Amino acid sequence: MFEKSENFPENWFFIKNHSNGYVLMVENESQETGSPIVLSTIRTKDYAAQLWRYDPKGFLINKKSGQVMDVAKGKVS
Fold it and tell me: Which of 7, 11, 12 is closest to 23 using CA atoms?
């Protein structure tokens, strides 16, 4: 369906805001479907909730939860 972009790493990676250094993570390390994504400082340990992987189908998968990142109800508010 999607071609893999050469811009995505092969392994797990952080999604980092270069202006403040914060990374995206699942709020409270939740593994529940629909959990919010929040900004956080990078952790030095126990950072699985902050790691993401590109799936060839076009999804970003969180390492800790195994859930894909999505926009709630398909809408950006």
Answer: 12
Q: Could you tell me the two tokens for 36? A: 């919010």
Do the Cβ atoms of 56 and 2 come closer than 8 Å? yes
pLDDT digit string (tens) for the chain, length 77 residues = 455 556 788 899 999 999 999 999 999 999 998 899 999 999 999 999 999 999 988 899 999 999 999 887 776 66
Nearest in space to 29 (alpha carbons), one of 66, 77, 59: 66
How far apart, in Å, are the Cα atoms of 36 and each of 7, 20, 41, 43, 71?
A: 25, 20, 16, 18, 10
Can you list the domains of the chain with their CATH numbers?
1-67 (2.80.10.50)
